[in-house]
Amino acid sequence: MLLALLGALAVLGLGTWVAAQVRRSYGDLEPGGAAPAAATSAEPPAGGYTLIDAAESPDGPPLPAETLAHVCGLIERGRENEAAGAVRDATGCGTHRAEEIVAEIRRSRRP
């Protein structure tokens, strides 16, 4: 039991020392000092994920008129999967969102 306690103290002490060395290597901070602020860049972060601009529509780009006419024709013929593909190709949205758009168009075109 005493050996386990001594081992735990050794691990904690070593971890504290390593953390202090890392902190000092990132800006020569005193123990307990604040970390340096992250640099901001005009480029988007790695991985392509960016924050959505408040002015941008959450629904994505509008559907072009000729694509809308083509999609309506496909819906009238019962070819909704192809209509969703046309929406996806025209807007670049995902499959689920394209199917939602086709459903919205179908609901809005019913008498």
UniProtKB/TrEMBL annotation:
Spans annotated as Disordered: 29-63
UniProt feature, compositional bias: Low complexity: 31-48
Name by which UniProt lists this protein: Ribosomal protein L7/L12 C-terminal domain-containing protein
Organism: Streptomonospora litoralis
Lineage, uppermost ranks: Bacteria, Bacillati, Actinomycetota, Actinomycetes, Streptosporangiales
